[in-house]
Amino acid sequence: xxxxxxxxxxxxxxxxxxxxxxxxxxxxxxxxxxxxxxxxxxxxxxxxxxxxxxxxxxxxxxxxxxxxxxxxxxxxxxxxxxxxxxxxxxxxxxxxxxxxxxxxxxxxxxxxxxxxxxxxxxxxxxxxxxxxxxxxxxxxxxxxxxxxxxxxxxxxxxxxxxxxxxxxxxxxxxxxxxxxxxxxxxxxxxxxxxxxxxxxxxxxxxxxxxxxxxxxxxxxxxxxxxxxxxxxxxxxxxxxxxxxxxxxxxxxxxxxxxxxxxxxxxxxxxxxxxxxxxxxxxxxxxxxxx
Length: 290
Prior knowledge:
Elements: H1 2-36, E1 37-39, E2 45-47, H2 49-69, H3 72-87, H4 97-115, H5 121-139, H6 150-165, H7 169-193, H8 196-210, H9 221-238, H10 258-286
C-alpha cells in the first residue's frame, strides 16, 4: 500500500510539471504573436508599427503600379486596402503626430481623387506618388526614398542663384516653381521623417522666396543672392548633408623670423659655401701631376 501511494504522488507531481511547461510554452508563443499583432477592445486586430508600415508600403507600391497601368478596378480595390491598413495600424514610435497627420492627409487626397466622378490620370498619379514616398519614409526611416530629390532641388537652387546674379526675376520665378513642384511631392514624406522645426524652416523660406517676384519694391541683386543662400542652408539641414568644404585652402600667412632668423640663415649659407669650396679645392689638388 505504501508503495502504491508513493507511485500515485510521484505521477501527480510529474503531471503538474508537464502542464506548467506546456503553459509556459504557449504563453511564449502568444507573446511572440502579440509582438506583431494585438486585439483591440472591439475585437479588431491592431498591427504593430513595423508590421503596419511594411504592409502600407507594399500596398502603396502596388497602387502606384496599377495607376501607371490605368487599372481602375485595382486602383479602387488597393485604395480601400490602404485605408484599412492605416486604420488598423499603430505607428507609435515611427513618426511624430505631424507625420501621422501628413500621412492621413495623403490617403484622404488619394481617396478623393479615386472617388471623383471624372477620372484624372494626372491627379491619380500625383496622389499615388506622394503616398508611395510617404509610406516608404515611414518604413525606411534611416534611408527613405525622398532623399534622392536632393540633387534636382540643388540644381533648382543653383539656377535661382544664377538668375539672382543676373537680376533675372523671370528666371528666378521659373526655377522656384520647379523647386516648389518637387517639394510638394516629397513634403508628406519629409514631415514623417524629419523634426517639425526643420520642415517649418524650409516652408517659411519657400513662402518668402515665392513672394519676391510679386513684391512692389525692387530687390537688389545682393539681396536675391542672400535669399538663395538661406534656402541652400535650409535644404542642407533638411537632407542632413554636411557643409561643403572649400575646394582650395587659404594661403598660409608669411612668418616673420626676426634678426635671429636672418643670422641663422646666413650661418647656414656660409657653411654650405665653405664646404663647397673645400670640396672644389680637394678635387683640384687630386689632379695635380707629381
